[in-house]
Amino acid sequence: MTRRGKIVLGGTLALYLAGATNDSASAYAFASGLLGILLMAYVLSRLAASGLKITWYRAPERAQAGQEFSIDIEVTNTALLVKPRARLTGKATAMSFLGDDQEVSLRLPPIPRGVSGRVELPLTLPWRGRWNVEDLRLEGSDPLGLYERREPVVPSKSVIVTPAYWSSLPMHYTALLTPAARQRMSALRPDQGEYRSLREYVPGDDLRKIHWRATAHRNRLMIKEFERPRDLQTQVWLAAVAPMMSPDIEEPEPSASTLVRWMQWFGVGNPPHHVPDEDDQPTSLLGRLERSFGFGDWPTIVPFGSMDESAELALSVAATLAHAFVNASLPTVLRAPGLPAAVEGPGRGGVFWRELLASLGHLDYCSEGEVESGAMRWSRDLPPGSSLHLVSNSVRALTAMRASFSSGEALPALFTGPGSETPAWATHVAGYDDIPAALGRAAAGAVRKQVEYA
């Protein structure tokens, strides 16, 4: 029974009590009428969804954060009557981060008896990670909305939501390359590599690659593009650093800390990000017991599921850069602590991009120490002449990646943390909508600094 039905039932009981107290025939009549309405509404609600079955449904394995997608559902009417008032309901539960469930509801069109119909249930998930589509069921109600009947739910399915990224940028991909990479590409002979396509001229392109016939036909300079050799790599180094526990933040309650540790032990939530000093001593009785039984060496954990907007923005920036380079058929590498080596690259093409994007959907936040150790390893494996971009929401991590690159070349560094903390040599990204403009500013700044170094 719905809230409206409970109100009507309460009114019915009140009228019956009033009729019994005052011996009022009119009160009895009104109460009988309301009771008849309740009984009729109950019968109609039972018939609204009975006989309807979800034959099958298909949810996409992957979706992009903030973009609407559809769940395909087939509903069959096995009853003897048309069902005009049934609806589909369900919810999506975030499994990687804490947050509100995303509830969805869709009114079904009338389905004739013995007929199967396919419907699309629209759904938009706000952030990346693993989501479970669950509690998907058919519901029916009477025309007055006094009762609701819920059919059994169907099994849940998982959807991997990847970071939001810009699939198209207002500038050509060559404008994103570092100055050294542009010079190396311009040094190639016009006929080196296989011919791929034509594009409009961008300042800095080799004039030997101009396609004069297409230029005359279109009345603007057109450049011939060729497949690039494998040694011309584009690399993006990403450091999505977790929010650290500072000394100003009070220590969590022991009970909550213990619960989180047990959940981490069973693989639920994000991995530990902060390890306390050896001199840290527990002050509570439970803390001393944990230390006595050998649990004191476990790290103090930021509560699992806490999402950091600056780290998510860094993921979007890195995904936008990687997509631009992969889309241009350039061998692309994306380095990040915790990213599987099998999907880091170098690679290009649709298959490589889909695997890389799915891995970013699973990627956990890292610590600044992991970035410092990883950057030294990445720099050793960096081929000469590669185009490199640095992306992070942490000044310390961004500085560590920049310091590991010892060639003296001006590198585009993009910072997604607070604007007041942006280093002088980095470009600040204010938000998701600022990504294209920030990439343009970073590329122009790298060219200007390279000229100054020269």
Task: Describe what you observe in this structure.
The structure is a single chain. The protein is of the alpha/beta class. It folds into three domains: 1-162, Immunoglobulin-like; 173-183 and 230-239 and 308-453, no CATH class; 189-227, no CATH class. It has helices at residues 3-22, 25-49, 179-187, 212-218, 254-265, 285-292, 309-327, 341-344, 350-362, 368-380, 395-404, 435-453, and strands at residues 52-58, 62-64, 68-77, 86-94, 102-107, 116-124, 129-141, 148-150, 157-162, 195-200, 222-226, 234-239, 332-335, 387-392, 413-415, 427-428. Strands 2, 4, 5, 7, 8 and 9 form a six-stranded mixed beta sheet that branches. It has a five-stranded parallel beta sheet with strand order 13-12-14-15-16, with helices on both faces. β14 (387-392), α11 and β15 form a beta-alpha-beta unit. α1 packs antiparallel against α2 and α10 (368-380) runs parallel beside α11 (395-404). The longest helix has 25 residues, at 25-49. It is elongated. Mean pLDDT is 75; it is low at 245-262, 264-304 and 450-454.
